[in-house]
Every structure is written in structure tokens, then in C-alpha cells.
């Protein structure tokens, strides 16, 4: 400021600061010149009506600069100069240009004789000290040996104030250049010797600074962070103790300093005493350091202990707004005694390792380490938010708030709104801004006043200043009934309804007189944009005028061009931001912009809950009681709010119920609070709540669930769920698009409800045939009884929770039979796996079940099977028969409640005393019926297995009696001294058929299988057995007991060879026109597929389900198909067929019934179109669906319950590389069409060859045995689809690893 600037009129000065609106207030307070304003403080500016912090800061910084550069007005008494004191060697020296004669007095007198602190800021008796961030005051020069701060604009000093200071030592590594403008001017600074805290006689040189609030000392004058900070308010006495030393006595401890000479010491004492006495003489002034006692906790965004590299002990760290504070401990934090703080506007946070992260500034890198990875994530997030807060620019907000109506939200009236809709020209609060976003960018474009800097051009700011909330609401809110208006305390649903009515429907707007006349509206708009009447333009535009209407002027075809030609910058800005805006429409439906449009019920609940900070990762560790904070919580108007206590009116945070995606009921005592539950939101955040009362926690759970679960899934609310939420899934034919459904996990059962409210058959997770994660942990695949469900992970946090919960529920959860993983027939998967392996590899093993395996291998195998039996594959060579047998025995011996149960075991033992065999068998049957279903099924499977074992007693030496000796004590869990237990097992094996009601057909089949196995064993012992062969049941012409054939299936056998094998056994001669083929028959689908003559049989057997089988019969249509293929022209087939999807697991599909579709079958693709396509046009049209032919399996026939329109149809299965399955049905109009389509399918899939040109006269000879592979036992092949597919993959790698079920 030029010389004499102190006499500048305050009106001119405020105008230069762009703060003309405060001129009247200043003049009313008798402040006519800048010099009159020299003693203003932050509080006095507030009393003058300067309410915006940015405006107060701008005024105080202007005053500071004015009085650094300008002398006082003429006639003002100058402070007397004092005699300079010679500088000592340890005193910081000024530049060479500054001589001693230029030094100012180091203890200046104040003009008019006022005390020193009064000169820094005269305070009225009613003055209330600042709550946070006091602003810079007038800089006072120091003289003599004390150095005065230089020009702040060139040499900013280190931070001076922060909430809390402590007599604590900062690490020596805390160094750096000056950082920020001081919040209080330095009164005195210089070098002093300081006595260490330990009382050593060795003094340390320190750079000491004194300002109006604190006495601080540093390692050097260049340090940014002090080693100690002593609040002036805590100084009780300053006294000389001789030898150039003086003592500063505080409430906490004493500090001893030593000056270079007595004069320097006396000056320090006099200055400190004056500052301390004047502070005590004033009203108790709270500095920022003292605020921590009662408000720091509320201001903190995050607080807790962290390790900081360079410190032996943890520091208490607080993240508050745009700063990070360091304290020695939590007690100092509560007392307001701190170490230093870090300005986050120059900070950057980076994760280093699992628990560590760095806070980097230009002056130092702070390397922190948290107690856990989850804690680290919370700290990093809190500091990143602090950086965002620090970097936000309030300049735009202050300029827009200069208009009084813009200081309050245009919708609810909340003060200091920092968001805006740039096309509607309204300033709004954060809560209303969230609801504005839900209206869509066609209605409102929401931007931040503080963060979206690039948006705020000078024209847009001027537009908001001229337009303002008042003008906007004169149009939008001209007719708002008091009953429909909202307030700052209104809930989210109430806000949403009001904003939809206000802006989307235009319910309350002031209608333009031309409303409804489009032509007149457009003409009026063209006239309005050439003037400065923005209100008219607004009314026309939002009453239906088109922003792109034709003006009739070729040189200016649009209203925007007219405004540009007329020089109306603000009109241009308004039109530009509304180029894509949609006019309000009363008939528009009030949509929630959610996947569903039904309003959720309004549930009300309140009470105290314990809560932890929100998390961004799954909870991996138990939360202790000290990690929970007691909060008053309310559930009202679709918002779950939590407050510091039940007296607060402003919530600490809110969760909208429509954003909740999952609710989890944790087991009791899962954390330090007895009952806890988790809430997951769409923003991928996790909230943990708790209560000591399980009943109260259950009430909260039910209330929250009712508030966010869609009415279509309200049936799930009656369940005692562990996890409830909405997920995206895929299934059926349309796997490209996921749909939303509601899921509830109850124990080991997963309940499902589709979008249409149809509740489907629950999934029994313990009976899943397959449970796997595909892709990059993004799809969870569940397969149960040929039903497949693909759950997608769109939100990482809750998806990981679902995966973990489903995997846990699908595993074994205890030591009883009912808690194990089960097969379809209710047999524990562990038992099924062991029985299958022993049947395959150990039927003839001598001493099977009597010889013990290795204890360590048995233990590890049992643990693996109990963890997840689905993942365990018992392989010959890797697992020994005796180890597996020992595992099965140990499982039954350690079984909780036993196989026969403690309730019924004595009755089984008692039954052995019955002498009448029929009575005994009858008693056994009654006791069998009394067992739980899983126990009954397991007992039958085990006795069936032992029955087969004893059939090979000639080789394995395990007769019925020997097996009873082994299994009696095992199953009854006795010491073996009582033979009754063995007698029960012996009776069960001997009377297996009668007790378990095995019919003749089942018995004959088992006997045939045993006979076949014995034959194969004989062949194996004679060296004629081919390694890798298996036994399969094949039927001739139809499925009957008398047509069964048990055939050995080598790995190389083709369908043609199998056909000849069956015909040779029945002495059937193939004639010239006989087209005998092997068919795969699917009884469930009522469909069949002829195998190509070159197909390998073994892989097909592995893919067969329990409802499929192989049959050899004549293919009656083969001759006609061969004739068609020989006579047709071209290699494509196209035409109309009737099409229907198979409904997926949830009962969803295209629709009921068949629909006409146009198909094109080429050599590689099958394509589906909705309309008929002709060669002359439309060939570039994209098909609705297409599938690679190589992945299709085509079966003849459609099941009757689908009511196909004709009897000539296909069933088509498709499986892609990710094992995602689709199924659909096709029907032809005639039998000839069916043959032609089927022939084309077979030709395309098999390279053009449907039938061999010449039949061999005899079956192809079996290949010779490979002595390197050895022999393995042959068993009947059976199993579920998943196991078959896995077996095929294993067989492709090594035939010896192939396993299968009996």
C-alpha cells in the first residue's frame, strides 16, 4: 500500500477487496479509515456482520499487509527507539544490507501507551475467543538481539497455532523450511540455551519464538515443526535464577533457559512477564490449544494411537478438518496439550505395506504404522478426506454467498450451502444435492462450490450473483403449500418427494402466460435473450420454450446466437447450461431411479447403539469393547442416523435405507459387544453396530430389514436370517444380462426371491454338487441337482461377505451327521468319497478295514475331508487304501451322537438278544425307521458297502464276522469288550436285503456288478486287463432289466465299437440297411441324442447324470438324413422354428409358450433373429442371439409338460468356456423339417460325415495292454454332472487319476 495508505477511506479499501457490502457496517461502527481498523480481530469482524470466514480472513490479511508496508498516518505518535544491544555469536544475523542502525526496539511501546496485547487486538468485555483457526494479527517488529519476522509475502513462517500444545519433545528429524503464514505474529525470537528435561548440566542451543499465544523452541530457525510448545496462558511465573538463566514456570513443569548475557535475559523475562500478566488480566481467553478439552473430540474426524518412525512410543494422532495433529498421549489431547500439526493442503498419503502408510509434505515424510490393516485403511481414508477438505477453494462460495439469498439452501433453507445446480441457478446444501443427483442430469446438473473449480467461470459466478436463490424460487417455488415445504431437518424421502414435485414435475412453478402455446413461447424466448431479463428467460424455458428453436434469422438461427449478437453474456451462459435440460412434466411418474419403483415402507425406531467407525474392508479381527462408541440412533423417513447423544440435533452421520444392500446378523459374542450386526451400503462401506441385549438387537435388525427390503421379498423377513440382501445373478438362456434378486441365508439354506416376488425352492448348500468362484473372484457358481446359479459381485465388499458366508454354510459345521456336507441321497460326502475309493481300489485288498493305515496321513486326510469334502479327490498312488479305510473308521468313531444315536443305540444292542430271527429283523426295521433321515441313509450306504466287501472275502479275508468285529465297536463307540455291537453289524450285513427292503431288481443289479468286478479282477490277474477301463451298464433297444449289458469301456472305445460289442453279445447281425447306433437318453428331459460313430464313449459317460443312460438301437431316420444331405445345395440351413427358453433356477425365462423365430445355421454359428431375413436385404442386421455350433448338444424330443406345439422338436444344451449353461427348445412344423435341421446339425458338428462309408466285419480289436500303466479295478460308473466333468479333466491328464462313484 502506498505511503499514507493508513488514511485510506475504508469504503475505497473494502471496494478494492471486493467486499463493498460491509462498508455501511464499518461506518456505523465509526471505522472511517484503514487506520481505524488496525485493531480489528476475528470476533469483532463477526460482530460487525462479516459472517463468512473467507471474508474475515481477507480483511485481516489486508490489514496485516497494510501495516507491514505502511507507516501510521501523519500526526500519530511513533514508538520510541531503544538502544540496540550488541549481537552475540549465537544470535541469528540479518542480511548484510541491514545494519544495527536499522534495528527496531525489541520491546516496543504501544502508541498511546496501550499494553502490548491491546495493541495486538483490542477486545471488548463481551469478546468471545475464536473456536478454531484464529486469523493473523498485526505484525510487530522486534529489535536488538531478538529477530523480527521478515515480510510474510516473501518469507512465510512455520505454523504457529494448533488445537493443543504439550511440553513434549518432537523428533530431531522434524525439520524443514518455513511452511505457512503464521496465525499469530512473532513478538520476539532469538537463540537461547535450554536445560534438557532430564536436568542435565549440558545446555542445548535452541531457536526460541514468542507470540501472543505460545512460547516455542526449535532446533534451528529454519525448522517447520517445534520441539516444544508452551501456551502463554499456562505460564504462571517467570523469574531470574542467576548466571544469565531464567525459569518459566507452567502448570505442568518448569523450563530453564540461559541467555548470552544479563541484558538479553532481562529482556526475555520482561517480555514474558508482560505477556503473561496481560493475558491473565483479560477475560479467560481460550486459545486453540485449550479447545481440545471440550470440543476437539467433536471436531476430530479420526483419532487414535499410531506409531511414527523416529519415536519410541506411539503418538496420539487426530485428523480434524484440514489438519493432522500430533499429541504425546490421549491425556494431553484431552488437556489440549499437543506437539504439532500438519497442514494437509501440502500433504499426500500413500500406502506402504500391510499396516504402514506415509504422509508426505514438502518438509518431511511422516511414516506411520497402524495396529492392523483395517485401521490403516481407516486412517488413509480419513487423511485423504482431510486433503480434499484442505484443497477445497472457498473463494467461489464466498463470492456467491455475497448475495443474501444464496447463503441459505434454495430448497430446505440450510445455512452455508456449498453445492449448486448450474442449470437451475440455485445454491443448495449437501443433502439436497444428493437428491438432485437422483433427478438426473436432464433435470439438474449438480456441482460443488468449493471443489469443481474449472466449472466456475467468471460468467457463471456473475450469473449466480445476479440470479440468486430468490429469483429462482420466485419461479420454482411460487406456489408451495406450507404443508409440503421442507426444512433442514427433513428426511431423505421427504426431500426427494419435494424436489421431484418442484423440478421434475414443476408442481409449484409460476406459469408463464404463454404456457401451452409452443410457437408463442419460442418467439418470446428469442426476444427475451436479447435483453438482460434472466427471469423472463427462465420462465419461458422451463414452461416449454425450446432452447434450440428456430429464430427465423439465417445469421442467428438459435436463441444462443441471438444472445451472443446482443452481447448478453449471462443469457448465453444460462442457455449453454440448459441446452439439454428437460422441461418439467406434470404427468411424469415419481420414480425413485432405482431398480424398483415401489415406495419402501416408512419404519420408525430409535435407541442407543454401539458403533465402530465405518470400514471399507471385511472385518477380519474381533472388535473389542473399547473400539465401540455409544451413539443415539434413529431410523426415520428412510434414514438411519446416528448422533453423539440423544440431546444432539445434528447427526454424526446418516445411512439411507435405499442404499443398504445387505444386513448381517452376527453370532452372539462375535465381538466385544454381545449382539452385533453389520450394514453394507452401495458405496462399499461396512457399518458395525452392537447392543448388549439380543432381543433389542433383533428388533433393530427387523426394523432395518423392513425398511430396505422390497415388498416383493417381504416373505424373507419372517426368516431368522443370518444374512439378508440383494444381489445380481444370472441364469437360464440369457446369461448376458444380470438381474436383481433378494437372498436370505438361514443356516445351510439359501432362500431366493426373484424380482417379480416369486419365492423359489431354497438351495440346500450342503448338498451342492459344485461351489466355485469364476473370473477374477467376480462370479460365485452354485450347482444343485442340475440347477445352476451365477451370483455376480458388483460391489466388492458385500460380495466377499456373501462368498465367505455361503462357503462356510456349504461346509461341515459340526461333528454330527446332519452337520456334514451331503450327497443327493443324504449320505455325508466324506463317507461317500471313502466308500467310492475303496470300492474302486480296495475290494480285494487283504485285511481291508482290519489293517491300520499311517496315523499322520489318516489325521490329515480326515481334516481335509471335514473342511471341504468337495475339494478332496482321492487318487490311486497318492492315497493308500488302508489310510482311506482308517479315515472312514475314525470318522464314525469320533462322530458326535454316533451313527445309531445315543437315544436308540441301547435298543439296537438289546435287539441282539432276540432268538427269533424274524422278530429280530422286524425290530431292526423298526429301529431303522426311527433313526433320523441322514443316519438312516448313511447306515444303508455303509452296510451296502460292507455287503460288497464280504462278497470278496475269498481275496480280502474280510468275512461278515470279521467286518462285524471291526465295525461293531467303531459304530457304537464302545471298547470292544461287548460283542453285542459286533452282533448288530453282523446281523445287518447278513439280513441286508430284508432289513433295508432291497427289491429284486436292485439286488440283481448289485450282483451283476459284483460278478462283473470279479471277472475283471480275474482278467487283471491274467494280464489281459487294459489300464483305465471301466464298467458301464448299456441297454439294448429299451431300458429293461433283461436287456442290461455290463460292458468294459476302455479309454479309446468309440460309439461304433460299443455298438458292435452289444450286438456281438446278443448275436445280432447288422444288415445292409440297418443303422444301429448308440444313443444317450436323458429321462428327465425326455430327449435322446444319437452318438456319432467316432465319438469316444468314456468322456460321455462322465457327463451322464443319474437320470441318463446309454442304449443301442436302430436309428430309423438315418437313411432319410443321408439322402437329404446328398441332394441339398449349399452348406447352410435357415428357416422358421418355434423357440422357447428353459426357465432357470429362479423360475425366470423368456415367457411361457413357444415363439416364432428365424434361424440361420452355418458351418460355425447358429443365429437367432426376431424377423424373417432375406438375401436381398437386411443381411447386415445384427442377430438377437448367436451361439458357436461346436458348443451345442442337440437332443431329439421335448418334454411333454412344456406342451410343445408340435411333436417334432429338439432340446438344445449350450455350455461356454466358463461352464455357464443355457437350455432351450425348438419345434418344427413337419417331421421332414426336423430331419433336415437335425441332419445339418450333425453334419456341421462332425465335419460332414454322418455315417461310416464301410462297416468293419467285426469289432475293432482292443489295444494291447501298456505294461507301464499297470492295472486298476473296474467298477460301474455313475455320479453327478460336476464330478463327471472333473473326472474327464483328470482323465485327460492321467488315466490313473480318474475317479468315479458307485
UniProtKB/TrEMBL annotation:
In terms of superkingdom, the source organism counts as Eukaryota
**Which SMART domains did the record assign?**
ArfGap (SM00105), PH (SM00233), RhoGAP (SM00324), SAM (SM00454)
Q: Where in the cell is it found?
A: Cytoplasm
Q: Where is it mostly found?
A: cytoplasm
Keyword annotations for this protein, in alphabetical order, are: Cytoplasm, GTPase activation, Metal-binding, Phosphoprotein, Repeat, Zinc, Zinc-finger
Q: Where is the composition biased (Polar residues)?
A: 163-184
Mind telling me which InterPro entries this protein's record contains? Arf-Rho-GAP_ANK-PH_domain, ARFGAP/RecO, ArfGAP_dom, ArfGAP_dom_sf, PH-like_dom_sf, PH_domain, RA_dom, Rho_GTPase_activation_prot
Q: What is this protein called?
A: ArfGAP with RhoGAP domain, ankyrin repeat and PH domain 1
According to the entry, what is the taxonomic lineage of the organism?
Answer: Eukaryota, Metazoa, Chordata, Craniata, Vertebrata
Amino acid at each position: 500500500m502506498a505511503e499514507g495508505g493508513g488514511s485510506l477511506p475504508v469504503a475505497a479499501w473494502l471496494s478494492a477487496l471486493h467486499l463493498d457490502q460491509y462498508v455501511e457496517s464499518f461506518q456505523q461502527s465509526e471505522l472511517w479509515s484503514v487506520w481505524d481498523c488496525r485493531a480489528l480481530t476475528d470476533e469483532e469482524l463477526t460482530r460487525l456482520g462479516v459472517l463468512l470466514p473467507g471474508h474475515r480472513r481477507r480483511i485481516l490479511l489486508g490489514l496485516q499487509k497494510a501495516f507491514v508496508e505502511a507507516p501510521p498516518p501523519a500526526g500519530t505518535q511513533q514508538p520510541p527507539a531503544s538502544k540496540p544491544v550488541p549481537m552475540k555469536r549465537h544470535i541469528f544475523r540479518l542480511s548484510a544490507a541491514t545494519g544495527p542502525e536499522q534495528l527496531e526496539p525489541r520491546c516496543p511501546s504501544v502508541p498511546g501507551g496501550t499494553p502490548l496485547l491491546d495493541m495486538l487486538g483490542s477486545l471488548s468485555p463481551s469478546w468471545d475467543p475464536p473456536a478454531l483457526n484464529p486469523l493473523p494479527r498485526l505484525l510487530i517488529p522486534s529489535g536488538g538481539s531478538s529477530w523480527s519476522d521478515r515480510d510474510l509475502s516473501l518469507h512465510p513462517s512455520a505454523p504457529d497455532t494448533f488445537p493443543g500444545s504439550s511440553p513434549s519433545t518432537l523428533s530431531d528429524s522434524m525439520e524443514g523450511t518455513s511452511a505457512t503464514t503464521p496465525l499469530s505474529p512473532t513478538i520476539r525470537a532469538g537463540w537461547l540455551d535450554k536445560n534438557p528435561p532430564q536436568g542435565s548440566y549440558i545446555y542445548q542451543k535452541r531457536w526460541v519464538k514468542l507470540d501472543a499465544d505460545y512460547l516455542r523452541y526449535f532446533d534451528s530457525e529454519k525448522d517447520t515443526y517445534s520441539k516444544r510448545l508452551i501456551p502463554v496462558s499456562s505460564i504462571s511465573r517467570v523469574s531470574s535464577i542467576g548466571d544469565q538463566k531464567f525459569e518459566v514456570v507452567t502448570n505442568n513443569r518448569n523450563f530453564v533457559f540461559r541467555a548470552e548475557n544479563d541484558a538479553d535475559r532481562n529482556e526475555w523475562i520482561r517480555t514474558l512477564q508482560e505477556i503473561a500478566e496481560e493475558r491473565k488480566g483479560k477475560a479467560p481467553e481460550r486459545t486453540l490449544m485449550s479447545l481440545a478439552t471440550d470440543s476437539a473430540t467433536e471436531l476430530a474426524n479420526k483419532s487414535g494411537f499410531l506409531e511414527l518412525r523416529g519415536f519410541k512410543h506411539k503418538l496420539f494422532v487426530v485428523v480434524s478438518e484440514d489438519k493432522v495433529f500430533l499429541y504425546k498421549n490421549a491425556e494431553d489431547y484431552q488437556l489440549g496439550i499437543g506437539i504439532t500439526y500438519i497442514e494437509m493442503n501440502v500433504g499426500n498419503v500413500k500406502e506402504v505395506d500391510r499396516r504402514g502408510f506415509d504422509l508426505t509434505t514438502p518438509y518431511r515424510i511422516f511414516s506411520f504404522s497402524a495396529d492392523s490393516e483395517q485401521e490403516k485403511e481407516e486412517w488413509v481414508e480419513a487423511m485423504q478426506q482431510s486433503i480434499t477438505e484442505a484443497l477445497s477453494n472457498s473463494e467461489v462460495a464466498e463470492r456467491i454467498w455475497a448475495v443474501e439469498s444464496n447463503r441459505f439452501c434454495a430448497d430446505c433453507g440450510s445455512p452455508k450451502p456449498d453445492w449448486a445446480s448450474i442449470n437451475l441457478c440455485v445454491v443448495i446444501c449437501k443433502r439436497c444435492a444428493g437428491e438432485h443427483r437422483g433427478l438426473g442430469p436432464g433435470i439438474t446438473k449438480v456441482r460443488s462450490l468449493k471443489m469443481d473449480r474449472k466449472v466456475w467461470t467468471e460468467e457463471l459466478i456473475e450469473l449466480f450473483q445476479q440470479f440468486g436463490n430468490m429469483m429462482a424460487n420466485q419461479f420454482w417455488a411460487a406456489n408451495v403449500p406450507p404443508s409440503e415445504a421442507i426444512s433442514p431437518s427433513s428426511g431423505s424421502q421427504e426431500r426427494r418427494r419435494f424436489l421431484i414435485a418442484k423440478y421434475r414435475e414443476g408442481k409449484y412453478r409460476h406459469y408463464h402466460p404463454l404456457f401451452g402455446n409452443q410457437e408463442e413461447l419460442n418467439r418470446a424466448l428469442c426476444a427475451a435473450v436479447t435483453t438482460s431479463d434472466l427471469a423472463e428467460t427462465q420462465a419461458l424455458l422451463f414452461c416449454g420454450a425450446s432452447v434450440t428453436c428456430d429464430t427465423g434469422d439465417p445469421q442467428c438461427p438459435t436463441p444462443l446466437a441471438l444472445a451472443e449478437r446482443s452481447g448478453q453474456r449471462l443469457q448465453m451462459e444460462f442457455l449453454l447450461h440448459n441446452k439439454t435440460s428437460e422441461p418439467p412434466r406434470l404427468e411424469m411418474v415419481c420414480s425413485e431411479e432405482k431398480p424398483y419403483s415401489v415406495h419402501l415402507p416408512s419404519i420408525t425406531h430409535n435407541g442407543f447403539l454401539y458403533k465402530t467407525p465405518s470400514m471399507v474392508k471385511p472385518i477380519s479381527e474381533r472388535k473389542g469393547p473399547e473400539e465401540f462408541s455409544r451413539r443415539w440412533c434413529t431410523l426415520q423417513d428412510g434414514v438411519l442416523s446416528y448422533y453423539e447423544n440423544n440431546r444432539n440435533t445434528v447427526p454424526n452421520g446418516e445411512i439411507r435405507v435405499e442404499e443398504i444392500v445387505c444386513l448381517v446378523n452376527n453370532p452372539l459374542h462375535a465381538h466385544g459387544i454381545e449382539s452385533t450386526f453389520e450394514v453394507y451400503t452401495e458405496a462399499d462401506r461396512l457399518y458395525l453396530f452392537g447392543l448388549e441385549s439380543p432381543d433389542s438387537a433383533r428388533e433393530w435388525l427387523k426394523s432395518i430389514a423392513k425398511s430396505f427390503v422390497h415388498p416383493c421379498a417381504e416373505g424373507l423377513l419372517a426368516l431368522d436370517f443370518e444374512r439378508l440382501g440383494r444381489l445380481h445373478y444370472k441364469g437360464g438362456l440369457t446369461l448376458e444380462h444380470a438381474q436383481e434378486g433378494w437372498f436370505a441365508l438361514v443356516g445351510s439354506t439359501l432362500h431366493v426371491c426373484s424380482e417379480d416376488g416369486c419365492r423359489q425352492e431354497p438351495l440346500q448348500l450342503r448338498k451342492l454338487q459344485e461351489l466355485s468362484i469364476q473370473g477374477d473372484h467376480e462370479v460365485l457358481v452354485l450347482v444343485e441337482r442340475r440347477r445352476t446359479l451365477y451370483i455376480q459381485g458388483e460391489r466388492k465388499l458385500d460380495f466377499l461377505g456373501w462368498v465367505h458366508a455361503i462357503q462356510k454354510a456349504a461346509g461341515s459345521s459340526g461333528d454330527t451327521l446332519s452337520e456334514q456336507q451331503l450327497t443327493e441321497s443324504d449320505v455325508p460326502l466324506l463317507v461317500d468319497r471313502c466308500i467310492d475309493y475303496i470300492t474302486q481300489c480296495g475290494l480285494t485288498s487283504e485285511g481291508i478295514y482290519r489293517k491300520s493305515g499311517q496315523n499322520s496321513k489318516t489325521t490329515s486326510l480326515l481334516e481335509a475331508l471335514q473342511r471341504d469334502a468337495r475339494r478332496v479327490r482321492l487318487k490311486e498312488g497318492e492315497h493308500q487304501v488302508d489310510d482311506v479305510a482308517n479315515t472312514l473308521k475314525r470318522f464314525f468313531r469320533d462322530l458326535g451322537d454316533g451313527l445309531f444315536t445315543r437315544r436308540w443305540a441301547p435298543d439296537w444292542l438289546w435287539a441282539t438278544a432276540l432268538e427269533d430271527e424274524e422278530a429280530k429283523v422286524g425290530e431292526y426295521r423298526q429301529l431303522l425307521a426311527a433313526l433320523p433321515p441322514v443316519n438312516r441313509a448313511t447306515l444303508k450306504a455303509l452296510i451296502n458297502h460292507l455287503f460288497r466287501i464280504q462278497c470278496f472275502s475269498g481275496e480280502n479275508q474280510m468275512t461278515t464276522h470279521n467286518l462285524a468285529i471291526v465295525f461293531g465297536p467303531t459304530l457304537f463307540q464302545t471298547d470292544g469288550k461287548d460283542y453285542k455291537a459286533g452282533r448288530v453289524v453282523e446281523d445287518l450285513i447278513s439280513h441286508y436285503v430284508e432289513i433295508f427292503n432291497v427289491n429284486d431288481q436292485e439286488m440283481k443289479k448289485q450282483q451283476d456288478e459284483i460278478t462283473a468286478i470279479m471277472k475283471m479282477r480275474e482278467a487283471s490277474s491274467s494280464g489281459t486287463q487294459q489300464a483305465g477301463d471301466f464298467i458301464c451298464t448299456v441297454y439294448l433297444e429299451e431300458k429293461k432289466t433283461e436287456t442290461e449289458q455290463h460292458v468294459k469301456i476302455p479309454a479309446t472305445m468309440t460309439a461304433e465299437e460299443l455298438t458292435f460289442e452289444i450286438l456281438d453279445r446278443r448275436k445280432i447281425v447288422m444288415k445292409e440297411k440297418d443303422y444301429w447306433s448308440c444313443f444317450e437318453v436323458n429321462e428327465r428331459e425326455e430327449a435322446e441324442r444319437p452318438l456319432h460313430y467316432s465319438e469316444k464313449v468314456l468322456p460321455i459317460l462322465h457327463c451322464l447324470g443319474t437320470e441318463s443312460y446309454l442304449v443301442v438301437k436302430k436309428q430309423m431316420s438315418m437313411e432319410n438324413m443321408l439322402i437329404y444331405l446328398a441332394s441339398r445345395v449349399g452348406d447352410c440351413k435357415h428357416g422358421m422354428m418355434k423357440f422357447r427358453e428353459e426357465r432357470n433356477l429362479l423360475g425366470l425365462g423368456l415367457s411361457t409358450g413357444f415363439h416364432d423365430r428365424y434361424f440361420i445355421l452355418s458351418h460355425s454359428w447358429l443365429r437367432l433373429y426376431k424377423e424373417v431375413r432375406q438375401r436381398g436385404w437386411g443381411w447386415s442386421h445384427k442377430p438377437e442371439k448367436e451361439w458357436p455350433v461346436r458348443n451345442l448338444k442337440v437332443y431329439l424330443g421335448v418334454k411333454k409338460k412344456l406342451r410343445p406345439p408340435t411333436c417334432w422338436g429338439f432340446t438344445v444344451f449350450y455350455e461356454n468356456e466358463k461352464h455357464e449353461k443355457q437350455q432351450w427348445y425348438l419345434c418344427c412344423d413337419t417331421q421332414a423339417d426336423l430331419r433336415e435341421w437335425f441332419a445339418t446339425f450333425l453334419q456341421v458338428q462332425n465335419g460332414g460325415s454322418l455315417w461310416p462309408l464301410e462297416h468293419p466285419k467285426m469289432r475293432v480289436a482292443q489295444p494291447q495292454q501298456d505294461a507301464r500303466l499297470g492295472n486298476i479295478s473296474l467298477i460301474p460308473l455313475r455320479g453327478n454332472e460336476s464330478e463327471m466333468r472333473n473326472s474327464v479333466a483328470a482323465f485327460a491328464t492321467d488315466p490313473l487319476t480318474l475317479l468315479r462313484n458307485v
